[in-house]
Each structure stands twice: as structure tokens, then as C-alpha cells.
Design brief:
With 341 residues, the chain is of the alpha/beta class. The chain has helices at residues 99-105, 109-112, 135-145, 157-169, 174-177, 183-189, 196-205, 209-216, 229-235, 237-258, 273-292, 300-307, 317-335, and strands spanning 8-9, 64-65, 67-68, 85-88, 93-97, 122-123, 126-130.
Length: 341
């Protein structure tokens, strides 16, 4: 009796059409589908002929279902040459990759897993290497190594954070693969509005300065008094100091910018220097109100709304003009104060 052939049935993801704008769930990297004729050359080992000389008829031929990455599959043609290694995630998803690419990106032979032993059983598309990461994490790791975007999978911030640790374990340089020009850097930065402190702590823990800098601008409204010991420990002394200096530096800069009153104009018959002192006193009171609660995230609209009404109490048109010019100068100066670490 001839051996029974088992065909792999490759599984591909089916992306949903609708997406919640507030919370985008992670998309799966594999899904059940029909067999792909072009890839049927990949076969599992043939089982022993257990039904030989047996009165029981062998069962009908059945397809064996396996899950294969929708990006790293045998026919993906990422390079001109075919993959020579299969990575199997902890949730049994197959990723067809290139050993040369993994070794080129890793400084520790991909966590000591490569090169593989010559005794390992290999299929037509290379040996199968089991890894401890789930398919979601491994998918992010491989996209980073291949310098490809995985944003269409909508990975969560938690998955991205775990993937950075996995990249470190595999000896992949984060400064190179999470740099400002990489797709993973942009994907991480897209989470800054919702997870500013967590992203800043993540960047700090891996010393990703180019990621921490733009993220810090989202922390101007954060209250430093609410920082927990655990989060402070994750951020570390260096980046924690930079965050404190950002807050304190902007508060001090605002106080310095508010201090000079509007410049007096030449005395007229209706408004002499004594009359102009009214504007100086009013400015001092209003600026003291702003400086008392000087916040690093103080908006220009707040500044204008606090100082502009001073002109309603002035009868001199020259004083009103000097007040408008002073407020305009103040807003421009405050807008140029550094907003990042």
C-alpha cells in the first residue's frame, strides 16, 4: 500500500473592514483557509505503514491544518532567494525566514539559537526552530529585523513593549532597529498620546533617547508628584532628571518672560509716566497670578486670556498698543521655549 500524502493547508489572516477609532484590537497573524497549490511541496513526514496486512481499511485522506504567518510565508518573496529556516512560535504559528538576515541583525547568534545543529531534521524549506515568543510578539520582532512596518496588525502597546525586550534577548540592536527612521519607531511614537509615561519609561529603560525626546512633550501636563516609586525606578535616574529639568526649566522660563512690564511710551498730554504706572501695576498683578501656578503645559490662549483684559481698563490708545505688543512678544517667546528633554 502506498504511503498517504498529507498536504499542508496554509492559513492567512483576514483583516476586518471596520476599526474602532478609540481602541484597535490586535489582528491575528494567521487564520484557516483553503490549500494553496503553489505551496503544496511542503509536507510533513510520512507516517509508518500501520495498516499493512490489517483487515481494517485505512482512513480517508485528510488535510493537516497548520498556521503560517501572513507576512513570512514560503511564497512571500521578501528576497530573491527563498527562506531557509522556519520559526515556530509558542502558539504554533510558522514563520519562514532567512538565517542570513537573523544572523546579520543579531549580536549573539539570535540568542544562541543559530547556527543550527547539522543533526536537526530539515524540510524542503529549512529546519524548524521553536521559540518561546507568541506569534504576536515574534511577528513584531521579525518585522523590526526585516525593517518592515507591522502597523497593519495593530499591535497593542503592551505587545510592542514585550517585543523590545525580545529583540534585546536576541541580540538585536534597538538603537539601530528602533531608530528615528524605522517603522517600529513611528509605531511606538503613535502610542505617545495615550501612553506617554509608559512609553517614556520604556524608552528610558532601553536608553532610546531619540524615542524619549518626542515622547517627553506629551508629559508636560503630567504631575510629577503623582510619579510612583515603581515608575521612577523603571525610568531611571538619568531620564528622570531630564524630565524634572524639563518641567522646572519651563516653569522658570515662564516666570522670567512674564517679569518685564510693557514698555512705556513717550508721555503725552493725556498720559504721562505717572498714568502709565497703572498699566505696570496691573501687569505685575496679572503676571504674578500666572507665575504663581506656572505650569510647563500652560497654553498661549491661557496667557492671552489672562493679560488681554488689562486693556479694557486703559483709556490711552498708546498704552493699549504697548500692551498688545507686549502680549504678542510674550506669546512668541513662550512658544519658542523648549518643549522636550
Amino acid at each position: 500500500m502506498e504511503n498517504t500524502d498529507w498536504d499542508f493547508v496554509l492559513q492567512f489572516v483576514s483583516e476586518p473592514w471596520e476599526m474602532d477609532c478609540l481602541h484597535v484590537p490586535e489582528r491575528p497573524v494567521a487564520e484557516r483557509t483553503s490549500a494553496v497549490p503553489a505551496l503544496t511541496a511542503v509536507q510533513v513526514p510520512t507516517p509508518p505503514d500501520s495498516f499493512t496486512n490489517s483487515p481494517i481499511d485505512p482512513p480517508a485522506e485528510e488535510d493537516t491544518l497548520v498556521s503560517v504567518s501572513t507576512t513570512f510565508f514560503p511564497g512571500a518573496h521578501i528576497y530573491s532567494y527563498p527562506p531557509d529556516l522556519v520559526l515556530l512560535s509558542s502558539d504554533s504559528i510558522f514563520f519562514y525566514v532567512h538565517t542570513r538576515t537573523l544572523l546579520g541583525a543579531s549580536e549573539n547568534n539570535f540568542g544562541g539559537l543559530l547556527p543550527l545543529s547539522s543533526k536537526m531534521t530539515a524540510s524542503q524549506l529549512g529546519p524548524v526552530l521553536m521559540v518561546s515568543e507568541s506569534s504576536t510578539i515574534l511577528n513584531i520582532v521579525l518585522h523590526a529585523i526585516y525593517d518592515m512596518t507591522c502597523s497593519h496588525y495593530s499591535p497593542s502597546f503592551e505587545s510592542l513593549a514585550i517585543a523590545l525586550s525580545a529583540l534585546t534577548d536576541y541580540g538585536v540592536s534597538l538603537k539601530r532597529h528602533v531608530g528615528p527612521s524605522t517603522a517600529l519607531h513611528s509605531l511606538l511614537l503613535s502610542h505617545a498620546p495615550l501612553y506617554p509615561l509608559e512609553l517614556y519609561a520604556l524608552a528610558a529603560s532601553h536608553d532610546l533617547y531619540d524615542l524619549a525626546v518626542p515622547t517627553s512633550s506629551h508629559l508636560l501636563s503630567f504631575s510629577l508628584a503623582s510619579l510612583t516609586d515603581e515608575m521612577a525606578d523603571r525610568i531611571g535616574a538619568v531620564y528622570l532628571k531630564r524630565l524634572f529639568f524639563l518641567h522646572f526649566g519651563r516653569a522658570d522660563a515662564l516666570k522670567r518672560l512674564l517679569l518685564p512690564p510693557p514698555h512705556p511710551h513717550a508721555p503725552t498730554n493725556d498720559c504721562d509716566f505717572t498714568e502709565q504706572k497703572r498699566l505696570t501695576r496691573a501687569w505685575a498683578l496679572a503676571s504674578a497670578y500666572l507665575a504663581w501656578d506656572a505650569r510647563p503645559d500652560l497654553s498661549t490662549n491661557t496667557i492671552e486670556s489672562a493679560l488681554a483684559p488689562l486693556g479694557d481698563q486703559l483709556s490711552c490708545e498708546h498704552c493699549r498698543k504697548t500692551l498688545r505688543d507686549r502680549i504678542k512678544t510674550l506669546i512668541i517667546q513662550w512658544s519658542t521655549v523648549k518643549r522636550t528633554i
